[in-house]
Design a protein that fits this description.
Layout lengths: L19 H13 L3 H15 L4 E7 L6 E7 L4 E3 L5 H10 L5 E4 L3 H6 L3 E8 L4 E9 L7 H31 L3 H6 L8 H16 L3 H13 L6 E8 L4 E8 L8 E8 L4 H8 L3 E3 L2 H4 L3 H8 L4 E9 L2 E10 L7 H51 L7 H13 L6 E4 L6 H10 L8 E5 L8 H6 E2 L11 E2 L1 H4 L4 E5 L6 H13 L1 E2 L8 E2 L3 E6 L3 H6 L5 H7 L2 E4 L10 H13 L9 E2 H9 L5 H15 L21 E2 L2 E2 L1 E2 L10 H18 L10 H5 L3 H11 L7
Parallel strand pairs: 13-20, 13-21, 14-17, 17-20
Antiparallel strand pairs: 1-2, 1-6, 2-3, 4-5, 5-6, 7-8, 7-12, 8-9, 10-11, 11-12, 15-16, 18-19, 22-25, 23-24
């Protein structure tokens, strides 16, 4: 009647509940934590760590149903006995919560007993026995998140398994005390057989201790082998929409006691497995040579199986799948065996339900951590340029395009040279879309090693390849219900583009090393500095993928084509980078503006920011003046008029050159480069090399300006 749960931590970890190490400690306390009362105390303590509230509690009835244990905990205080309602009232609450969560208002006797204004209860029950409820209460109305509900359901299931385990042990101990003659009399009784009780206990121990489905199944098979002969054991779990089963089989070739695992898929439609799932009733085949009716039975017969028994795995109100045993001999399994295996199946189903809930909670946690990891990277980059800044016609055109496409689900392809701000356009689209409350996840396709593309996009399972030491969610999964930004999409290897196309078409994918098909709801925004039409013509980019991505194209012009924005951008960066430093209050001079606008900016906005940052760093040592060492500019002291310096702010002078003058200067510069290179665009000594531009960028620019080259 005393003692708390050993090793219980009071820390909280958000909506997903305790971390994996803490879950393991909780599981151990519930599975092997002493008396029933001590295990209930451990569960009440864990409730607080999952859902911090005014009061957490439990109401658990004794094995014979004659008494109830009511424990309560206020905040982080001591766990105490509670004066609760009568057993009949508690039994009514237990019946009402049988199908899942139950909300109680302040008039409920249980809320009054715990002195709270509202409460939620989750049933503590095995597949065939209701034991009580866990309680979460608050003095003010407070909703539980999906993650908290999942974690509390996981906790209640684990408590049920722990209590059932303890009670099975006590029953087995009482049974072994029965005098020998009475044991013999009861050997044929399915529910009181010592051997079968021991097997149930071993199965329950496996359910309590194993959190890996393959390890759990192997332990269950080993426990069953001592009582029921078999050469093949099968565990099949329903997947996705329930149309097929994921099969895990353990086979013992040649009678070898060492089981080997094999997997596959099985359709529910037209199979005996589907019959077991639909009816929730076991199926026995005494001789497949005579009784095989479905395609999977003929396959079993070809593998040497002559008889088998298959039972459903029913967890509370839902069917998770089935478990089956098969033998090479005919007539091995009886109706009693099917009944016993059904009882085992209830325990296995509860354990699997628990395991699946645990996996979901952990997956949610990994996804949150993954999103946080990506967001940390994105936040650092997001502050590199600030918001989209500019007043030029080109910027206004981009803003109009963003306004048009953001509210839709259309895929967007953002094109433009490197450093023009394509990512900012993607962020603005996401921020104005219906997905803005969900993550924007970025993948730099050029930075992903070829051999890791699939893992980066779709994730992998532990052991899928060398170095895969744990399951990992991919970026598609992290972006679920949000937006995935594929930067430099033209860098994706041709042989991997088909897998990306499949996700865009079907909304489904598979992790590397996993057969499970997952669904995802993601909007795609792609960006590239390559001319993808030319890449398609050259056979380096799939045409069908290009059309999927380019539903709504947006071109971001280079900085030299919107020179009127240069002073605004430069002054913004000056203010952003100087901050509270000694360089605060710096402004651009008119000479600065002329020099900045005269330069062609091959690195675009990114290059401009770098030069501004360098000038801000040097300004204190130059008497508070901004000096830009641009190639060929000779940016010296600021121009003075009337003995004073003229500075430029974002509200100051207009640009020095008109758009027509800028365009004419660019055309003349390009023609001069072509003349010097003899009309050669590509290769050593070509115009692209002279201008310091990628050949594809130069070709695109020449085409846009209507300039023809005479060379290659």
């Amino acid at each position: 009647m005393s003692g708390g749960a050993p090793g219980q931590s009071e820390k909280t970890s958000g909506q997903g509940g305790p971390d994996p190490a803490e879950w393991r400690r909780i599981f151990l306390a519930l599975a092997d934590g002493g008396s029933e009362r001590e295990r209930i105390r451990a569960a009440v303590s864990a409730v607080t760590s999952i859902a911090p509230s005014s009061v957490s509690g439990a109401a658990i009835k004794s094995e014979d149903g004659s008494e109830w244990t009511l424990l309560a905990r206020e905040g982080q205080g001591e766990i105490r006995d509670a004066q609760g309602p009568a057993g009949d009232e508690l039994q009514r609450i237990l019946r009402q919560s049988a199908d899942g969560w139950l909300r109680l208002d302040g008039s409920s006797s249980l809320c009054q007993a715990f002195q709270v204004g509202e409460g939620h209860v989750v049933p503590v029950s095995t597949g065939h026995r209701a034991m009580g409820v866990l309680f979460v209460g608050s003095r003010s109305e407070a909703a539980l998140s999906h993650g908290q509900r999942e974690a509390l359901t996981l906790l209640s299931n684990q408590l049920a398994i722990g209590l059932e385990n303890l009670r099975l042990r006590r029953k087995l101990e009482r049974f072994t005390e029965i005098p020998g003659p009475r044991v013999k009399e009861r050997r044929g009784d399915l529910h009181h057989s010592e051997d079968r009780l021991r097997v149930l206990l071993e199965v329950n121990n496996a359910v309590v201790s194993e959190l890996d489905r393959q390890a759990l199944f192997r332990s269950i098979a080993e426990a069953l082998r001592s009582l029921l002969p078999f050469h093949r054991a099968t565990l099949a779990l329903l997947q996705g929409d329930g149309s097929h089963l994921q099969v895990l089989s353990l086979t013992s070739p040649g009678g070898n006691p060492t089981f080997q695992a094999e997997g596959g898929k099985l359709s529910v439609e037209g199979s005996v497995a589907g019959q077991v799932i639909r009816t929730s009733q076991p199926v026995i085949r005494h001789d497949l040579e005579k009784e095989a009716v479905a395609y999977e039975e003929r396959m079993l017969r070809e593998k040497g199986v002559r008889s088998y028994v298959s039972v459903p795995l029913v967890s509370k109100t839902k069917v998770l799948g089935l478990m089956a045993l098969g033998s090479r001999s005919p007539g091995v399994y009886s109706d009693d065996d099917a009944l016993f295996l059904t009882e085992v199946g209830k325990q296995v189903a509860l354990g699997l339900d628990n395991m699946l809930a645990y996996e979901e909670v952990q997956e949610l946690r990994r996804k949150v951590e993954l999103e946080a990891e990506y967001l940390r990277e994105e936040v650092l980059e997001a502050h590199a340029f600030g918001e989209i800044i500019g007043r030029s016609p080109a910027i206004r055109k981009i803003e109009e395009a963003v306004e048009q496409v953001a509210p839709t689900e259309a895929t967007v392809l953002v094109t433009g040279e490197s450093g023009t701000g394509k990512e900012l356009v993607a962020r603005e689209i996401h921020a104005r879309s219906e997905r803005r409350d969900h993550p924007l996840i970025k993948v730099n396709c050029a930075a992903v090693p070829r051999e890791l593309y699939e893992s980066e996009f779709f994730g992998h399972v532990k052991g899928a390849f060398s170095g895969a030491v744990r399951d990992r969610a991919g970026r598609f999964e992290a972006a679920d219900r949000g937006t995935l930004f594929l930067d430099e999409v033209g860098e994706i290897p041709l042989e991997l583009q088909s897998k990306l196309l499949m996700v865009l078409q079907d909304g489904t994918y598979q992790r590397v090393g996993e057969e499970r098909v997952r669904e995802v709801d993601v909007r795609i925004i792609a960006a590239t500095n390559r001319p993808l039409e030319q890449e398609v013509d050259a056979g380096r980019f799939r045409k069908d993928l290009f059309y999927r991505l380019a539903v709504f194209p947006i071109e971001v012009p280079p900085l030299r084509e919107r020179r009127s924005d240069i002073p605004l951008l430069a002054q913004h960066f000056v203010e952003q980078l100087s901050g509270d430093s000694a360089g605060a209050g710096l402004n651009l001079s008119r000479a600065n503006v002329r020099n900045l606008q005269a330069y062609d900016w091959p690195g675009n906005v990114r290059e401009l920011r770098n030069y501004v940052e360098r000038a801000v760093i040097r300004a204190p040592s130059l008497g508070g003046r901004l000096v830009f060492d641009l190639p060929g500019s000779g940016d010296g002291p600021p121009v003075t008029e009337g003995g004073r310096e003229e500075f430029y702010s974002s509200e100051g002078e207009p640009t020095v050159l008109t758009e027509r003058e800028i365009r004419q200067r660019e055309v003349e510069n390009l023609k001069a480069a072509l003349d010097r290179s003899g009309g050669k665009v590509y290769g050593k000594g070509g115009a692209a090399e002279l201008l310091g531009l990628p050949p594809t960028t130069l070709s695109s620019r020449l085409k846009r300006l209507g300039i023809r080259s005479s060379g290659g």
